[in-house]
Amino acid sequence: MLALVAALLLIDGAHTDELLWFALLLVAAAIATVAPPGHRVAQLGRAAEVLVLTLAASTTDDSFLVFLPVPVIGSVLAGARRTTAVLLGLAAVVLAAGGAAEGMLTDRGYLGACLQWLVLAGAGAYQAAVLQRVLLARRTDETPQPYVEATRLLTQLRSVARQLPGATLDPGGLAEHLLDEVRAMVPSSRGAVLSGSGGGRLVVLAQAGVERLDWETALDTESSVADAWATQQPVVSSRSQARSVTPSRDISSMVVPLVAGVRTVGLIILESDSAGAYPPPVLARVTGLTGAAALRLEAALLFDEVRSLATTEERQRLAREIHDGVAQELVMVGYGIDNAVAALPDATAAEEELRVLRAEVTRVITELRLSLFELRSEVDRYGGLTAAIADYARTVGASAGLRVHLSLDETTARLPAAVEAELLRIAQEAITNARKHAGAENLWVTCAVDPPFAQVEISDDGSGIGENRPDGRYGLAIMAERAERIRGRLEITPRVPNGTTVAVVLGTAPRAR
To answer: Are 269 and 192 in contact (CB under 8 A)?
Structure first.
């Protein structure tokens, strides 16, 4: 707008007095622009702009009025609406006074230009205020929208979960129910329900048959499993989808994708030890069940993922709070005790008391650091369950002076993420109990993972579980609840000749190799 004013002045042939007014307008505009919006200096700069341009318009050239909307609208955008009215009033008064002094109140051209730009400035200010109000309202409405939507969906999910048979959203339980339902309809010698786990592999949620099988779980191979997952269409084959089945037998296999909307959430595999066991009518009967089953399974998997994310976030939050709060304060207390010991070289009794106190603070800090490590420990997407348990056992063993003996056996197949997380927490609780209460010297950690089978065993050579153990039965109850949540079995037995063995077993016994 300043450039436009300058161009109009040059077209009309600018005079010295007009250039002086333009220079003053430049100074006032600079003050209003550089000062923070809404600050008193900025308001004074806009008032100076109005005063300069109206005086210039009434005494020299009304081309200066082109700039009038700038300070007026700028005041609205800065949130000073009362100042806007004051600026418009100031402009009207100065233009009237200047016109009267110059004898131009009878000049229709002057009056028309003044009225025109006063109306345009006022209209521009009103439109800017309306637009600003609309944008702020939209921004206020949109900001909490994800949380409102999340609350609505979680509320609906809770209501649906309460209405489900058994009020469960357990993926494993739903998969077992689906497998039993399908096997009751069509002939099969064995079957399984698989779901995605990330990393281009599937996990076995449930299986049935006379023996456990090494099902095909890779999605980057040429197999019926990969084809059904990619095409979202059922695939019938004369080959088994398990790598451990003898290929020479007459076999019929059927892989049916579980599709919820546009997303494949899982697969159901059925196999029969006879040729041609799954003609189109049988396939149609199975696919008729998969729509509703896929929706139930997707809801269970999503609920499981939300619960896992919420748990992980809460553990990380607690770890941060402990690290930044209590842990740091205890470290400072320890330093203070060290300084006190150094300042009391002759006070033997006080020095001894402080040394005992310092040792206790050191012990508490060690406990806190181990608690932080436990909170932050998670099953890595690529490392697997046994690696996470082994890392925790090594760290705890090194801090407590325990000799740790590891026996790890894990296949490339993975358990569901929620199951791995629960098994890790059970192992952590058992290792912590052995460190804090058993008075052990050795710790044996045995892990065997061959999905859907898993066994984690923690043994120590300590004092065993007595009735008066400081931990009581609380830690054992927590482990039992976690094992029940993943449909596992918790076994706590005395170790010969001394100590305790805590084992959690998931699924049936591992297959012979």
So the answer is: yes
Is residue 28 within 8 Å of 49, Cβ to Cβ?
yes
pLDDT (0 to 100) of residue 372: 65
3-class DSSP state of 48: helix
Residues 6+ apart with CB under 8 A from 502: 426, 430, 433, 457, 458, 459, 479, 490, 491, 492
Place of tokens 């760290």: 395
Q: Which helix (H) or strand (E) holds 71?
A: helix 69-77
Rounded distance between C-alpha atoms, residue 129 and residue 73, angstroms: 9
Residue type, 270: L
| Bridge partners (DSSP) listed for residue 201 | 218
Cα 408 to Cα 65, 260, 418, 445, 482: the distances in Å are 85, 37, 20, 8, 22
Residues 51 and 44: beta-carbon distance below 8 Å: no
CB within 8 A of 209, min separation 6: which ones? 189, 190, 191
Reduced to 3 DSSP states, what percent helix, strand and coil does the chain have, rounded to the nearest 5?
Answer: 60, 15, 25
The residues near 450 (Cβ < 8 Å, ≥ 6 apart) are: 409, 410, 411, 413, 510, 511
Provide the pLDDT for residue 166.
45
DSSP letters for 204-231:
EEEEEESS---B--BSSSSSHHHHHHHH
- Give the tens place of pLDDT for each residue, 154-189: 677 667 656 655 446 678 778 888 888 888 888 888
Query: What are the structure tokens assigned to 143, written together?
Result: 């900001």
Query: pLDDT for 244-257, tens place per residue?
Result: 666 656 788 899 99
Find out whether 319 and 299 touch, Cβ atoms under 8 Å: no
Distance CA 226, CA 219 (A): 5
d(CA 105, CA 32): 31
- 36-42: long-range contacts, CB 8 A cutoff, minimum separation 24: 37/77, 37/78, 37/79, 38/78, 38/79, 38/80, 42/78
Measure CA of the first residue to CA of the last residue in the chain; give whole Å.
85
Residue 449: beta bridge partners?
410, 454
**Side-chain half-sphere exposure of 310, counting CA atoms within 13 A:** 8
Give the residue from 54, 44, 34 showing the smallest Cα distance to 99: 54
pTM of the model: 0.47
> Is 248 in contact with 275 (CB distance < 8 Å)?
no
CB atoms within 10 A of CB 489: 13
Burial class of residue 64, CB neighbours in 10 A (0-12, 13-18, 19+): buried
CA distances from 506 to 68, 173, 276, 490 (A): 79, 13, 34, 9
Give the Cα separation of 163 and 510 in Å (integer).
36
